[in-house]
Specification:
The protein is α+β, with helices and mostly antiparallel strands. The chain has eleven helices and seven strands. It has two domains: 90 residues, no CATH class; 144 residues, YojJ-like (1, CATH 3.40.1700.10.
Amino acid sequence: MQDLIANFRVQDALDIGVIAFLAYRALDLIRGTRAARMLLGLIVVFVVFFFSQAFDLYTVNWVLDTFLSSILLVIVVIFQSDIRRALTQVGSGPFFAADQGLQRGDVDEVVRAAVTMATKRVGALIVFERGVGLSEYIEGGTTVDAAISRELILSIFLPASPIHDGAVIISERRVAAAGCFLPLTANPNVSKALGTRHRAAIGVTEETDAVVLVVSEEDGRISLVTDGRMVRDLDAANLREKLEHLLV
């Protein structure tokens, strides 16, 4: 025991700590997603593989050995969206993120527009760009490039507007584009009661660090989505407080 303690280095503790942290972050990242079930499936495959070796099941062992010989490629294919999301979060850390902050006046305009649309049951989807660029979604929409204002946001989302479908993306304190299409979440744990707007809001925040405001057309509820998690039933005061905390 004393020899073991004597041979233990600070580097060993650091090595164990880093691996433990990475394992924890990986499990936290895939918790509640399809990837968690896929990981469980891979564990079952490994268990069957070890049993096939122990009980000399040659055919099963050959099939699984062939499969597991390409396990790195299999992992990349299966978990590509989760790997991309993890790398995006690393790249959007405080040392890499650009300043996409809004002014309180910008937040006030957005809050006023959201409350008006909620009262009138006008559906809306507003995406706020932060550290991760949203150019691929902006390019797919209609370019606006205008200052943030309540009147502009309302005019975009009114049903009579030709660009009311899709999302408005706010970038660098300007309404960059409207009518933008976002990826829908594939998370099986998302409530079936949520519509396309809410699923799109969750989807884009799973892949980027964006903040998304959703106004429900059905019930007029205002929701805010970050990191794939949704906070619903916000009033004007709570919405303003959260937006200022996240964006100002």
